[in-house]
From TrEMBL:
<dbReference type="InterPro" id="IPR011283">
    <property type="entry name" value="Acetoacetyl-CoA_reductase"/>
</dbReference>
<dbReference type="InterPro" id="IPR050259">
    <property type="entry name" value="SDR"/>
</dbReference>
<dbReference type="InterPro" id="IPR057326">
    <property type="entry name" value="KR_dom"/>
</dbReference>
<dbReference type="InterPro" id="IPR002347">
    <property type="entry name" value="SDR_fam"/>
</dbReference>
<dbReference type="InterPro" id="IPR036291">
    <property type="entry name" value="NAD(P)-bd_dom_sf"/>
</dbReference>
<dbReference type="Pfam" id="PF13561">
    <property type="entry name" value="adh_short_C2"/>
</dbReference>
<feature type="domain" description="Ketoreductase">
    <location>
        <begin position="3"/>
        <end position="178"/>
    </location>
</feature>
<dbReference type="InterPro" id="IPR020904">
    <property type="entry name" value="Sc_DH/Rdtase_CS"/>
</dbReference>
<keyword id="KW-0560">Oxidoreductase</keyword>
<protein>
    <submittedName>
        <fullName>Beta-ketoacyl-ACP reductase</fullName>
    </submittedName>
</protein>
<comment type="similarity">
    <text>Belongs to the short-chain dehydrogenases/reductases (SDR) family.</text>
</comment>
Length: 241
């Protein structure tokens, strides 16, 4: 029986690439999403991957969602915390709502989801928790105090939880992408991309979602059992920790 992998925000962008790569690697994949039913339906039809809608910032919704998936599909052995949002503003203009929404999805959402699968992983002595953080959680980014704080929080969470999971066969790792060619980044005007963003990337191009997905597939594998508490950067040489 193949392992069950759940990918939050798994119907679009980097998450969709992760869902497909895990499916290709033999996992039974469930792709969660927040509200874009049209995209999720098209993704499910195109890939044959099951989709489930709930908001990761809602603790009870996560607990109920995981309970339903575990009852109908099987125990979640791989959790990929990928769902993320931006609400950018310079700090003097940032509203409490912009702060709370980003922390709620990008950091509390990671707690909510991981908490919902953690006891099961401990009971089965196996688990993989992989969180998609960001280069901007490593270096900070002006206009993104909320996002940088949440993504840096994901890294602290990963290091702490790795220590708790180690004796139980659970690895906890993070991936920090740089600029990846998703809808969010491709919505930036071409002139800005070519004149301001790509020149900051030593390899001279945006990353592809599949390049993040391949890291996740490796971290999920049995062969990666000695890697825990790690942060893997994939940013084209833009930033070294
Ligand atoms: P997209 O905006 O393309 O997709 C986001 C996905 O997350 C969608 O499936 C969306 O669902 C889902 N989502 C958003 N909020 C919630 C929520 N509250 N509950 C459940 N699902 C939710 O994002 P990207 O692919 O660009 O980014 C994926 C991750 O990678 C994010 O964590 C992002 O911060 C991180 N990242 C991205 C980079 C990039 O260059 N693109 C760089 C560094 C990090 P729906 O379709 O229903 O809205």
């Amino acid at each position: 029986m193949s392992r069950v992998a759940l990918v939050t925000g798994g119907t679009r962008g980097i998450g969709a690439a992760i869902s497909v790569a895990l499916k290709d690697a033999g996992y039974q994949v469930i792709a969660n999403y927040a509200g874009n039913d049209e995209k999720a339906k098209a993704f499910a039809e195109e890939t044959g991957i099951q989709v489930r809608r709930w908001d990761v910032s809602d603790y009870q919704a996560c607990a109920d969602g995981i309970a339903e998936v575990e009852a109908t599909v099987g125990p979640v052995e791989v959790l990929v915390n990928n769902a993320g949002i931006t609400r950018d503003a310079m700090f003097h203009k940032m509203t409490p709502q912009q702060w709370n929404e980003v922390i709620g999805t990008n950091l509390t959402g990671v707690f909510n989801m991981t908490h919902s699968v953690w006891s099961g992983m401990r009971d089965r002595n196996f688990g993989r928790v992989i969180t998609i953080s960001s280069i901007n959680g490593q270096k900070g980014q002006m206009g993104q105090a909320n996002y940088s704080a949440a993504k840096a929080g994901d890294l602290g969470f990963t290091k702490a939880l790795a220590q708790e999971g180690a004796a139980k066969g659970i690895t906890v790792n993070a991936v920090c992408p740089g600029y990846i060619a998703t809808e969010m980044v491709l919505a930036v005007p071409e002139k800005v991309l070519n004149e301001r963003i790509i020149p900051q990337i030593p390899v001279g191009r945006l990353g592809q979602p599949e390049e993040i997905a391949r890291i996740v597939v490796f971290l999920a594998s049995d062969e990666a059992g000695f890697i825990t508490g790690s942060t893997i950067s994939a940013n084209g040489g833009q930033f070294f920790v």
